[in-house]
Amino acid sequence: EPDDFFETSFPCLNDTYRFYLNKVTGLDRKYNTGALHIKDILSPLFGTLKESVQFNYCFDIAWMVNQFPPEFRDLPVLIVHGDKREAKARLLKQAQPFPHVRFCQAKLDIAFGTHHTKMMLLWYEEGFRVVILTSNLIRADWYQKTQGMWMSPLFPRLPKGSGASAGESPTFFKRDLLEYLASYRVPELEEWIQRIKEHDLSETRVYLVGSTPGRYVGENMERWGHLRLRKLLHDHAEPIPGEERWPVIGQFSSIGSMGLDKTKWLAGEFQRTLTTLGKSSLRSDTPVHLVFPSVDDVRTSLEGYPAGGSLPYSLQTAQKQLWLHSYFHRWKANTTGRSHAMPHIKTYMRASPDFTELAWFVVTSSNLSKAAWGALEKNNTQVMVRSYELGVLYLPAAFGMKTFPVLKDPFPVSSSSTGFPVPFDLPPVCYSPKDQPWIWNIPYNQAPDTHGNIWVPS
Length: 458
Ligand SMILES: CC(C)c1cccc2c(O)c(C(=O)O)cnc12
Hints:
11 helices
C-alpha cells in the first residue's frame, strides 16, 4: 500500500486524526516531534510530485518556490488567490522569475470578502494528496506561530473507467471537495476537478466545511459556513445527556464586527450552530469560551509585539463590542509547548464539563466573523457569506467512537493514540480583570516585549 511507505518515512506522525501542528523555531525539540514544516509537507517522502495547487491569502512566491525540494522546484504550481488591481499586479510581478507559477483569481463580488482558504492539492506519480491548513505562504507564518493542518492520506488512482461515484468516502468528502472547487467557477480548476474524480478518496474520515461568497436561499443555505456546520452536527452527531453543560470553545486569530450585543449574531445563530448535537440545538445556557490572545500574551511571545501584526483586531471594531470581551480567555498551550507561539490556527470544539472528552473538533481558516461563517438575512430566509474559507470537521462517529478522549500530553506524539491532540490547554483560562484583548492598531509603550521593543503602529 503506497501510503504505508510514505507514512513510515515519518514514523512520528499521528495518523489516527492526521491533524498536525507546524514546527516552531525556538522550542525544546520534544514539542516539534510530529510537527511539520512546509518543507516536510512538500518532501519526496510524501510522494513524487507532478503538479500542485496552492490556495491561500498571502504569498511570498520566491520563498514558496524555495520550500519545494530541488527536484520539484520547477514543477507547475497554480496559485489561487483573491487579489485584485494593484495587489494582483504586485503578486504577478513576484512570479516574473518563475514561469512555472501560474495564477487563478477567485471572484470576490461581495464587499469586504477575502480569499482566506488555505489548501494544497498535491498531484503525485503515486496518486493525490490534499492538505487543508491555516498558514500563509510566507516565512513568518512557519516560524514562531501556532498553526495547524489536516493532511489527507495518499489517495490512489481509481481503476480506468471507474464510475463517477467511485472513490467516495463515508463522509462524502470527495463530493464536497469537488463542489467546493466548482464553486469558484474558473476554468483553471476544471482539470483539477477531473483529476480528483479519477482518484479514490474513500479513506477520508473528516467532513469538509467550506465557505464561498454569495447570498444563499432554500437548500443552498446549508452548503456553506456555520449553517453547513449546523447541518453536519444535526445529521451526524448524537445528543448527549446533560449537553447544556458541555462548553463550546472557539479559538481564532481575528474578530469581525458582531453587532451591539451578543443576541445580534454570536449568542443567537452562531451559538445555535455550535450547540447543535443531533435533533437538539440552541442551548442559551451552554458555556461559550472564546480564546484570543491578551496584550500580555503577545508582549511575552517568541515574536514579541510583531506577533500582533497577524492578530488584526482593530480598535474601531473592538470599541463597538466591549460586551464580547467578557467571553475571552488567554492563549495558553503548555500542553504543546506553544504558550509563547501566538495562534494563527483557528479551532472550534465542544468539550465535556471536565474537559476530558470532545463531541467534535474543527480546524479551519475561519475567524470569529460573520464574513467567514455567514449571517442570516431577510427574516432568516437568506444567508450571506462574504469570504472563501475552508476547514475540516472531526466527528467521533466517523472514527467509530462516541466521543474523542482529549489527549493529555500530545508530545512526543504517538502514531496510534486515540486521544485527540487539542493544541492548547483545557480548560481555557479567563482573562484577569487587568487583561486586555490584543488590539493591533494602538500603541503599547509601557512595557517592552521579549525583544525589548515597544509597539507604535503608524
Ligand atoms: C486584516 C488583514 C489585512 C490581515 C492582517 C494580518 C493578518 C492577516 C491574515 O493572516 C489573514 C489570513 O491568514 O488569511 C488575512 N488577513 C490578515
